[in-house]
Structure formats: structure tokens, C-alpha cells
Amino acid sequence: MTFDTLAVATELKEAGFPPEQAEALARAWSHVASGELATKSDLVGVKSDLERQIAGVKSDLEKQIAVVRTEMMQIKSELEKKIDAVHSDNVLLKWMIGFSLGLSLLILGKLFAIHP
Predict the structure, then answer these.
(1) What are the helix (H) ranges across 1-116?
(2) Over the stretch 42-77, which tens digit does the pLDDT of each residue have?
(3) Cβ atoms < 10 Å from Cβ of 22
């Protein structure tokens, strides 16, 4: 982008700026204008690149979430099996304790019945 410092300085002088101030402002604006400024097409290109990258990240995240979800379902299934096994063991243990207690009471009853 070209910047006509002479034309800008002339316009500023005609608008009432002192010559030194008009020339200094024109030079300052010239430095700004000669820098790397992004054009609209540059911004559109960057936008499309970012959108493409975001779509890629989103796709990767969705795949990772699916893997984690599958692993969690497997862990849940394994835990449910272990809980069921522990529950079954507890039921058996309750029956065994009840039977042992009943048998012990029966033995004690017989012992006291024999020896009055």
C-alpha cells in the first residue's frame, strides 16, 4: 500500500496545521501505513485456517471421548460383576453364620438338657 506523504502534508497545511506538524504527522502515518497490515483476504484466509484447525481438534476430541466412554462402560461392567460376586459371597456367609449359630445353640441346649 503506497502512502503519499506530500499529499497528506499539503492537506494538513491547508486545514490549518503548522508546516512542521503537518510534515511530522504525514511521516508518522507513512511509517504506520508501510507496516505489514492485514488485508481482508488475509483475514479470510486466517479465519478459514482456524476453522479447519478447530474442526480437526473437535473431531479428535470426539474420538477421544468415545474411547473414554467405551473404557468407562467396560470398567462399569467389571465392577458390576465384582459387586454381584461380593453380594453372592455375603449371602452365603449369612447362611453359614446362621447355620453355625443355630447348631451351636442346639449343642448348648443338648448340653444343658443332659446336665440338669
Answers:
(1) 5-14, 19-34, 40-114
(2) 899 999 999 999 999 999 999 999 999 999 999 999
(3) 20
